[in-house]
Automatic annotation (TrEMBL):
Lineage: Eukaryota, Metazoa, Spiralia, Lophotrochozoa, Platyhelminthes
Top-rank taxon, per record: Eukaryota
Protein name (database record): Uncharacterized protein
Length: 30
């Protein structure tokens, strides 16, 4: 069973890469 701390860490990491990809896309488009 996955712990809440690990789940939270993965959640933050996934969102970080998600927003990072959006920022990269905007930088390339601009």
């Amino acid at each position: 069973m996955i712990s809440k701390d690990t789940y939270f860490t993965l959640y933050i990491k996934n969102n970080f890469y998600f927003f990072y990809n959006i920022i990269c896309a905007l930088e390339i488009c601009s």
